[in-house]
Inverse folding.
């Protein structure tokens, strides 16, 4: 490994000198030449950093790549995408994808302990090099040559984070051990390894067996690491050191429910010393429900996603109010849609952001009961918490049809926008007098996952698609279907 040995100061000088330069600029060994014959080759950015910038050949061995001041260090080159597009000079970034770490080797992992495992060997000391994936569309490998190197960091997980990683790893290790102990041919159930992600916090595994699965850091984990490195502020709750598994999460939520179940929002807010804000009509702001959930985890203010551990594990807080007769009055809004990806025919569904949204996020619902029809928010009764994760059956039955339909409408120029009409045939107008318009995107009457535009000012339609001006579009889940899903799930 002599050609892989570096002093940290030496590495910092090398990497500081390439910041702002494109991957093509720093490719002194002509790594991009192979894209001529292999236009879709993967890992080109990492190959350039390894072979042209640091000057050593790549390999697939389960060991860290470098020796930095005599410490084994894993090099990871990862792409970042803009999440603020209004400025070319100042923008925030998100990880482009999960970070693959090492193979899940069933024959080896059963004999390992975490501290000496091949996974921790890779994760313990990391050098992360970031480049900007400066495109809204998927590009061929040769196009990476124009992507700039943004920054680098030496990263070590803190003790609390290591505990979370260890619990994730042990879920997989113990599952495989159990199969080997109980079955003559354990491989018949190896495909179930992918289902363990529902209870993993920082990691998942992909792809599905029989393809060789690998441990990956969740995209949300990588995003939080880089955002924190770039000085984004995250709050830390006092329960953070106790939060290393979903079992810990359940205990915290169960305790909170035991203390507050059956109380209305005003009573819960008073118990937690949360000040209720009201609008001009004296109605309590709906945001109080998220503040209640945030308080359950020891933070006196702010959003749950601003607490570092929750940002990393991809928990999305939601509130649902069940009507007095057990139905749902509103649909649930999820993420915004990037149509440049939804309509790019080179992107497969499995590589899409919407697929990764559903596969990598968990919805944590604070469940309330409306005591009667038209009850104000403050009278809703707290019932407890429920958690929903989305399996492949849901995703392929309800998300992919929406994805396919939208792509069909836009790519075949079949998208239509028309004036909405009342049941009497007259043109519908909103409170500002603006004519209400409707697209022919998937609607809740036909789809479980559907599209709906949202905007604070009905006179401003800031998005243009196929020549039509419209509100920014989000995907939603039909409320009735969500209630049915939740009814089959036990309270935490």
């Amino acid at each position: 490994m002599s050609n892989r040995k570096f002093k940290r100061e030496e590495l910092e000088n090398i990497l500081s000198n390439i910041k702002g330069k494109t991957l093509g600029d720093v490719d002194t060994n002509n790594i991009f030449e192979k894209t001529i014959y292999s236009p879709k080759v993967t890992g080109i950015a990492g190959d350039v950093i390894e072979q042209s910038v640091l000057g050593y050949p790549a390999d697939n061995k389960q060991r860290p790549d470098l020796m930095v001041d005599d410490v084994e260090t894993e090099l990871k080159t990862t792409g970042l995408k803009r999440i603020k597009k209004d400025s070319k000079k100042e923008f925030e970034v998100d990880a482009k994808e999960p970070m693959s770490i090492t193979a899940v080797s069933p024959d080896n992992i059963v004999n390992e302990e975490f501290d000496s495992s091949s996974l921790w060997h890779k994760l313990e000391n990391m050098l992360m090099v970031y480049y900007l994936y400066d495109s809204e569309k998927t590009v061929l490998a040769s196009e990476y040559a124009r992507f700039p190197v943004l920054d680098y960091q030496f990263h070590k997980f803190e003790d609390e984070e290591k505990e979370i990683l260890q619990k994730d790893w042990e879920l997989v290790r113990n599952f495989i051990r159990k199969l080997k102990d109980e079955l003559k041919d354990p491989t018949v159930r190896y495909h179930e390894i992918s289902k363990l992600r529902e209870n993993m916090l920082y990691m998942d595994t992909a792809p599905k067996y029989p393809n060789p699965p690998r441990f990956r850091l969740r995209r949300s984990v990588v995003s939080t690491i880089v955002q924190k490195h770039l000085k984004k502020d995250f709050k830390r709750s006092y329960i953070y050191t106790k939060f290393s598994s979903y079992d810990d999460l359940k205990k915290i939520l169960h305790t909170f429910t035991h203390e507050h179940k059956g109380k209305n929002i005003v009573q819960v807010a008073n118990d937690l010393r949360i000040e209720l804000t009201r609008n001009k009509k004296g109605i309590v702001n709906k945001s109080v429900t998220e503040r209640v959930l945030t308080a359950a985890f020891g933070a006196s203010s702010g959003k749950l996603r601003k607490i570092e551990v929750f940002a990393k594990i991809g928990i999305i807080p939601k509130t649902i109010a069940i009507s007095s007769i057990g139905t749902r009055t509103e649909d649930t809004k999820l993420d915004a849609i990037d149509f440049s990806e939804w309509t790019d025919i080179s992107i497969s569904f499995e590589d899409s952001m919407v697929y990764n949204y559903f596969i990598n996020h968990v919805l944590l619902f604070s469940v309330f009961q409306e005591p009667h029809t038209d009850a104000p928010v403050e009278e809703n009764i707290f019932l407890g918490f429920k958690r929903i994760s989305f399996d492949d059956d849901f995703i392929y039955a309800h998300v992919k049809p929406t994805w396919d339909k939208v792509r069909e409408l836009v790519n075949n120029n079949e998208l239509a926008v028309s004036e909405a009409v009342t049941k009497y045939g007259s043109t519908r107008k909103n409170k500002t007098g603006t004519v209400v318009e409707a697209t022919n995107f998937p609607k809740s009457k036909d789809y479980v996952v559907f599209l709906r535009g949202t905007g604070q000012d009905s006179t401003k339609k800031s998005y243009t698609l196929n020549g039509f001006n419209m509100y920014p579009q989000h995907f939603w889940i039909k409320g009735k279907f969500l209630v049915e899903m939740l009814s089959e799930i036990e309270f935490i």
User: Anything to note?
Assistant: Residues 328 and 482 are 8 Å apart (CA to CA).
